[in-house]
Structures are given as structure tokens and as C-alpha cells.
Amino acid sequence: MIGAVSLAWRNLLRNRRRSLMTLLAMLLGLMAVLLFGGYIRDITYSLQTNFVVSSGHLQIQHRDYFRLGTGNPAAYAIEDYERIIQSLQRDPTLGPMLVVTTPSLQFGAIAGNFASSVSRTVYVTGIVVDDQNRMRRWNDYGQRDLSSRNLSLSGTPVNTAIIGTGLARVLKLCGPLAVKDCEPETVSADTSGSALPSDIAALAGSVAKPAPVATDGQRPRMEILAASPRGAPNVADLRVLAAEFQGVKELDDVYVALHLAQAQKLVFGSARPRVTAIALQLQHTAQLPAARERVRELLDTTFKGEPLTVLDYEELNPFYGQTLAMFRAIFGFIAILMGAIVLFTVSNTMSMAVVERTAEIGTLRAIGLRRGGIRQIFVFEGLLLGCLGAVLGITLSLAAAALINALDLTWVPPGRIEQVPLAVRLIGEGTMLTVSAVGLIVVAALSALVPAARASRMNIVDALRHA
Hints:
Blueprint: H1 2-14, H2 16-55, E1 58-62, H3 65-68, H4 81-90, E2 98-113, E3 118-127, H5 129-135, E4 160-163, H6 165-170, H7 174-177, H8 198-204, E5 221-227, E6 233-243, H9 249-252, E7 255-259, H10 260-268, E8 277-282, H11 288-300, E9 308-312, H12 313-316, H13 318-356, H14 358-366, H15 371-406, E10 410-411, E11 420-421, H16 430-447, H17 449-456, H18 460-465
Helix pairs in contact: 1-15, 2-13, 2-15, 2-16, 13-16, 13-17, 15-16, 15-17
């Protein structure tokens, strides 16, 4: 075997130009696969990080909330959520895995700027701001992020709200919130009257007389009307801190973020406050299977009487799985295409070598080399090309990835509102590098099989007479 490998290597060096062109095709194919794979891997980690910092690795919900609860959150809310959170944090198995355990409340409502006689339906999220800020610091994959991590609601009064820019346009709050691309706002010269109708003001428990435009640092006002568990309306009079684009127009047109205490008061009034979800963020995503199993055990034992279930971030965000499936399909197509190019290139090189070395093959057969030995020589030539291409391809791919990352290129992916780094992640992706390299070597070896078989079947006399 050593002699066959040595002979195969000398044959490759004998036709340096052809071997170099074949090697170049293999290098380009492997680099294309690895760089695209590294780009996909970085997008995967970025998407996962975005979902984990916003909704956690796991969420405990009412078992029917995910399917039915968005239209009636009060009917599918978690009542004794504080006791559940304490039990999760104190659990000897689950506790060390947790970074943040935080409740949230989501519901539909009507937002209005009655001073301008406009309103629309909205989707309100009530959060614990400090917990959300701690969740936003999670960065298990070392992602470079150009955006601010802290929420705008940090350190604000409980009656403060953040809304989407689309909602600000509908409610005619563009001027005080500095939102662009709005229709001119006409403000009545008489602002002495109450901005709230008397019945709405009575529900809100407020008879204040707000001005429709903020002056001297005063924030504009907005009214939120939501249904209580018994169907009676509750109204909150809120100060709008800012309008922030949410990346997706459909969400931007309905987005309202509140402090959890204000959201609970708006939905449940003086009744016992509840939440629609408890988010659990883990130290590492690799802990997800163990953490999910432990949460299920607790729900089946400690909280057996509660109609609760646990969902992970992939179940909560179907877009994540759909995006990864799309990228896997694209990556598979590119890998197959590059493999076909390498297959035909190496096969063509080996076929030409067989034709050129017909007399040599006849001589080897005449001195006693068996057909298997002839096949072995050509297969080893393909293997050597594959091994050399794999080593050089991985090396050049790592160098190209480092160069791309050093350029600090940025782009705005779908669903994001700020520039994010364009990166290729290959360092630490040993499985992808190994599978790609082995795949190239296997394809190169398979490419040499047909020419090697044809060479081994040559008639010795005809091969010796070949000119």
C-alpha cells in the first residue's frame, strides 16, 4: 500500500498543471460550502440569541394559552405565579441552570388619543423591566451586537409606555415623539377641554386635562382600554416615553410595552393580579433538554393541580424553525452542487491520466501487478487530491472567515431594526469542518473509481501497443 501511495503521489507531481487545476476546483468548492455554512451558523446563533433574550429558553403557560389565550388572556392566566417562580428558583436541580425567571402579561386592548379623536386596537405586553434588562445581557455565543441592551422603560414611572412608530402615526403623536413620515397634525387652538370623554375619564379614575402636544419635556398622553375578567372595561391614562420601530410593520402598528404592575391593574383591576407566562432563561442552551424535563416533573408533581405546560423558544417562535429549514435546504443544494463539480472535475482528471498512461498501465500489468493494484493507484491519487484539498480548503476558509469578520461589515436582517455584524463563524465548529472535509475526500475517491476500473480492465497487449 505504501508503494501505491508513493506512486500515486509521483503521478500527481508529474502532471502538476492538471493536478493544480483540479485542486483549485476542489478548494473553491470546499470554501464556498464552508463560508456559507459559517454564515448560516452565525445567523442561527443570532436568531437564537434574539429569541432567548426576549422570551427566554422556556415559558410556562396555561396549557391552552398558546392556542386560544391571546383573545382572552384573563381566562388562561397563571394565578399563583409568584409561588411557582420561587419554587423554580429554589429547586436544587433547576435553580443553578437559571439566569432569569420573570413573569409577563400579554393582552389585546384599545389605545386612544382622545384629544385627537383617534384610536385603534393594540397588543400590550406587560414586563418586569429589571428582569428583561438582565435577560438582554445573555450572550452565550459571543455575538457582536451594535444595539443598546437596556430597555427604554428602565427607571420610568409605572404609568409609562413605549409604543411602535406605526401606532404613533395612527394616534397622531408623531410631533412629540419625533416620528418621521407622518401626515401634518392639526392641533386645536383650544386645549382647555378635557382630552377624555367624561365616561372614559370616570373609568380611568382621572379627570385630568392633558394637552395633545408635549411641552417643556412633558410626555404625550395615551389612553388604554381593556376588558376585565368579568367583561367590564378598565382604562389607564399613560405617558408615552418614546416610539420605537419594531422591525415588522404588523407588530409596529399595534405594539405597546408597559410595566407589569400597570398592565395587571389594567386587566385585573383590584382583583388578584395574574400573568400569561413565566419565562425561564438558562445559563446555556445545551441545558435546555434537562431543564425542560425538570420543569415538566415539577408541573406534574408540585403543581399537579395547575393546568400548566412548558414550551421552548422553538415552539414559541415557529419562524425560527422555518428559517433554519430554509437555510438547511439552501446549504444542502450548494453542497450537492459543489460536490457534483468536484466529482466531474476529478473524474475528468483521472480519465485523462488513464489515457496518457495506457502504455505504463500495460507495463505494470506485464510485470505482474494485478488489476486491484492498478485500481488502487488511481483511487489513491483521488484520495491524495481530496486530502490535500481538504487541508488547504479548511485553512483558506478559516483565513477568509477571519478576514470577513475583521472588516466589520454590517447588514439589516429581516425583523431587525438596527445594523448587525455580518460574520462567518467557523472557529469552534469542528463538526461542520470535519463533515465537509470528509465529504470532499469521499467524493474525490469516488470520482476516481470509474477511471480506475476502466484502467484495470485494459488488455495487456493492447495497452503495450498503445502509442
